[in-house]
Amino acid sequence: MKRPKRAHAKKSVYPGITPGIASAGVQEALKVLEGRWKLTILFELFDGRTLRFSELERAIPGISQKMLIQQLRDLERDGIVSRIVHPVVPPKVEYRLTSGGEELCPALDELLFWAQRWKGQPTSAQQVVVGTDKGRGASRRGRARRSSDRVK
After folding, report:
1. Which domains does the chain have, with CATH numbers?
2. What is each CA distance from 18 to 12, 13, 15, 22, in whole angstroms?
3. Angle between the N-to-C axes of helices 38-45 and 19-33, in degrees from 0 to 180, rounded to the nearest 10
4. Is the pLDDT of residue 46 over 80?
5. Nearest of 98, 127, 124 to residue 113 by alpha carbon
6. Prediction pTM value
7. Among 26, 35, 86, 114, which lies 20 to 30 A Cα-Cα from 1?
8. pLDDT digit string, tens, across residues 51-103
């Protein structure tokens, strides 16, 4: 009995992108995103959320203050996260995604959906869209609130 052939998506929607160019571009992107906690931080800041340092620390169990500071500094240096310091006592520091960081949302959504399909889990979009008519934005908000939907 033969297996049915799977329909494969186009490898690239960008004409003229060779495997070498694609590989180099992905390597550069992964340099920005590498690190155990960076993706978790980004998922917490998705959907235009602005969070104080202490809120991020509470939202990411298991991360040390030192590591959170280091990962946020790296993301800020790479232009993905902006740091807003309010001149008050005690100090108030907030973090949010820059426009460049917001541009990562669709790509990371697709990575999350791929990971869930790969693991045989339903995607958060399938779970959320059933109950709402808001589509992708709803899936991002739903994902940001449910840690069970995140890739570990």
Report:
1. 20-98 (1.10.10.10), 103-152 (no CATH)
2. 9, 12, 9, 6
3. 80
4. yes
5. 124
6. 0.68
7. 114
8. 999 999 999 999 999 999 999 999 999 999 999 999 999 889 999 999 999 99
pLDDT at site 139:
41
**Which region, left, alpha or beta, applies to residue 61 given φ > 0 means left and ψ of -120 to 50 means alpha?**
beta
Q: Which residue has the tokens 């998705």?
A: 46
Residue whose tokens read 């590498």: 34
Rg, Å, the chain Cα set: 18
In which element (H, E) is residue 95 found?
Answer: strand 92-97
Mark 106-115 as b/e (b = at least 16 C-beta within 10 Å).
eebbeebbee
pLDDT digits (tens, 9 = 90+) for 102-148: 999 999 999 889 888 888 877 655 554 443 333 444 344 344 433 44
